Amino acid sequence: MYDKKSNMVPLKRRKLVSSHIGNTGTDCSGPEVPNKFPQVVLFLLERKMGASRRAFLSRLGQSKGFQVEEKFSRSVSHVISENNCGDEVRTWLDSQVGGQTPVHLLDISWYTESMRAGCPVEILDRHKLQEQRTDEAEVAAFSAPSYACQRRTTLVDRNTVLTDALSLLAENAELSEEDGRGVAFRRAAAVLKALPEAVTDMTQLRGLPCLGEHSLRVIKDILANGASSEVESMKQSERYKALKVLTGIFGVGAKTADRWIKAGIRNLQQLQDSGQTLNRTQRAGLEHYDDLGQPVMKAEANAIGQIVEEAVGSVLPGARVTLIGGFRRGKLTGHDVDFLITHPEEGREVGLMPKVVSWLESQGFLLYQKTTRNSYLEAKDGPARPSSNMDRFERCLSIFKLTKEEKGGRKQPETLTEDCTESVRAPDPDPRVQILRGERGTHEGGLEVDQTKPAGRKPWRAVRVDLVVSPISQFAFALLGWTGSKLFERELRRWAAHEKTMSLSSHALYDNKQKRYLRATSEEEIFAHLGLEYIPPSERNA
Ligand code: UTP
Ligand code: MN
Question: Which among 300, 336, 506 is the best mutation to test ligand 1's pocket, defined by most ligand atoms within 8 Å of the CB?
């Protein structure tokens, strides 16, 4: 990228400036005016130098006609640091906007000598920070657009070691209610998921967006040592394990889990012993804890799809059922199964959900359900709130009872599913299940945990199913909003708001400049409204 041997300014920069800028070490004469050396834009790194010394040195430089910047930007040509090694500064630089532009990384000695000389002295080897990176020419750098909704992310991830580590850090941040940090790690993981090849060297990451200082540190650790010490110790931490176990209960979020942990509760046994009151959802979650902790297989999702179709077809002929969520993106397993229901005639979908639920209940398919009514009114609610991912469709959160017959698809009973489920079940690395299994049969006090029989023996399993009903006029928005991934959705809304001055939700798209709704009957039209290339569901796995 830049000529390391040269003591001159970076090659790229040289091309931009027409006047003589090369031998900064020669011409030291002239009056002391501000910005005497326009090609030399300095930035002093505060890290280890300290704020007051930095301020002092900055003023000194400015008084001698140097341009010393307060903030780092693309225009900086020389970064000066004190007591930092080259790799530390490079890591910091990589996390900065414009940190990929060529720049000299210099020790404070170059600065003080230049102050003494009254002009930028020649850059000698001893001034340069030593970096251990391999030669840039050896490995090609990756590039990617900054928003996940501009990228195609398939299920093929060539960097699982890195993305798993970053996803765990994201999960831990989310469980600790540090959503900002969570999103930062999710974005970093998503960038790596979209790469066409495995990362082997830090220099390949130079041009990539969304990789902050912390994520880069983790990646570097893994590339050097095979694992991230931070992630490994987090996984072993009591708090993380307790959060995983407790939020593994359907109906228990980060807040509740935190409250319980503060009360000394670390596992399900302690939860029972504590006598905490649980709501109906949490009681159902605990009752079916083991089943709901197991991934749902594609065949099981298909079987449930047939049941939902039958239910919907029986109560409102002509209504349509669409598989959404992760399975629509082509995933082979999921934590639940999601369906979107609509009717081609606007208004016919009103009152549909209670009928579907009644049908399912009458057939014995529901172990639990909670229906929320549609509360969206465009006239009242719109323009869609940009930052909120809450939507207000009529929605049913449920737990299905999937019997053996249904598990592999009703038309082909006793297929692969039993074996398939078993193979996922053992051995189980999920701490939730391990902890639970250690306690099997000891539950008392009204918390009935479905653990009296070994897993897999009973003729059915519990599966989380989400049903959503949308009017046909909002169908495309609902489909796009519920297909995910969660990060892809978040990035779509961020793109709409920041790049297009629009507000996107699962109900509508509003143009804040034109002050009007932009209608759409397909996902393709929505992407077009947003000025984005169409990305099919299978490539939304960000
Ligand atoms: P899920 O949580 O079901 O995720 O939400 P998923 O991608 O299907 O993955 P697994 O396999 O089940 O874990 C599916 C989509 O529905 C949206 C989410 O944004 C996601 O894109 N969703 C979910 C909402 O819009 N609102 C909600 O309340 C829940
Ligand atoms: Mn899902």
Answer: 336
Regions of the chain where pLDDT drops below 70: 1-34, 133-138, 379-390, 406-456
Max Cα–Cα distance, the chain, nearest Å:
94
Q: Is the CB of 336 under 6 A from ligand 1?
A: yes
| Ligand 1 centroid – CA 38 distance (Å) | 53
Residue with tokens 């299978």: 538
Q: Which residues have a beta carbon within 5 Å of ligand 2, which is an ion?
A: 325-326, 334, 336, 338
Q: Which atom of ligand 1 is least distant from the CA of 488?
A: 21
Give the catalytic positions in this structure. 336, 338, 466
What pLDDT score does 25 carry?
Answer: 40
The reply to whether ligand 1 has any atom less than 6 angstroms from the CB of 506 is: yes
Q: How far is CA 261 from the centre of its chain?
A: 26
Eight-class DSSP state of 43: E
Cα 326 to ligand 2 centroid, rounded to whole Å: 5
pLDDT score at 376: 80
Check: CB of residue 496 under 8 Å from CB of residue 503.
yes
Query: Edge to edge, what strands does the sheet with 366-372 contain?
Result: 320-324, 337-342, 460-469, 394-403, 366-372
Instruction: Report the alpha-carbon distance of residue 538 to residue 390 in Å, rounded.
Output: 23
Q: Ligand 1 in contact with 391 (CB < 6 A)?
A: yes
Q: Please tell me the predicted confidence (pLDDT) of residue 412.
A: 40
pTM of the prediction? Answer: 0.71
Dist. CA 409–CA 76, nearest whole Å: 62
Distance 399 CA to ligand 2 centre (A): 13
Digit-coded pLDDT (tens) for 101-131: 788 999 999 999 999 999 999 999 999 998 8
177-183 long-range contacts, CB within 8 A, separation 24+: 177/254, 177/255, 177/258, 183/487, 183/490
CA dihedral 533, 503, 330, 433 (to 10 degrees): 150
Q: What is the pLDDT of residue 6?
A: 39
Which tokens go with 178? Answer: 């540090």
Domains belonging to the chain, first-starting first, are: 4-127 (3.40.50.10190), 148-235 (1.10.150.110), 237-287 (1.10.150.20), 296-471 (3.30.460.10), 475-539 (3.30.210.10)
Protein residue with least CA distance to atom 9, ligand 1: 326
State the pLDDT at residue 131.
80
| The predicted structure's pLDDT at residue 98 | 73
Q: Whose CA is nearest to atom 27 of ligand 1?
A: 390
Ligand 2 centroid to residue 368 C-alpha, Å: 17
pLDDT at residue number 32:
52
